[in-house]
Amino acid sequence: MAGYLEKHDPADRCTCSYCGIAEDIHLLDGILDKRGNDTGKLACIACYPNDSWCCGSIKMVKLSIAPSLKPFYDQYVASEQWNARR
User: Fold this and answer.
1) pTM here?
2) What is the pLDDT along the chain (86 residues), one digit of tens a residue?
């Protein structure tokens, strides 16, 4: 992970397909349709259409998180859903 953090460029961000907020690509989750096919859309934690949003690492959350979404991430990291993945 250290190598990734050293090479990370905060300007390398994408936007949520729903609200347009810009975040690090690792903080936006790709959306699959009901058949499991990639829809080509990305969603932030606030806009994800179901409860299967997931983030790779707390370190990634700290890279270029949108301040308005920080409370959502804090709640997620404290949740059973986050802890079940560990």
Assistant:
1) 0.76
2) 445 555 667 777 899 999 999 988 888 899 988 898 999 999 999 999 988 887 666 676 777 788 999 898 888 888 877 666 54
The SS3 of residue 24 is strand
Residue 30 is classified by DSSP as: E
Q: Which two tokens stand for residue 36?
A: 């499991």
User: Phi, psi (5° rounding) for residue 81?
Assistant: -60, -45
The string of DSSP codes covering 43-82 is E-TTT-SSTT---S-HHHHHHH--GGGHHHHHHHHTSHHH
Q: Is 6 exposed, middle or buried (0-12, 13-18, 19+ CB in 10 A)?
A: exposed
41 Ramachandran zone, left/alpha/beta (phi>0; psi -120 to 50): beta
Contact (CB, 8 A) for 26 and 4: no
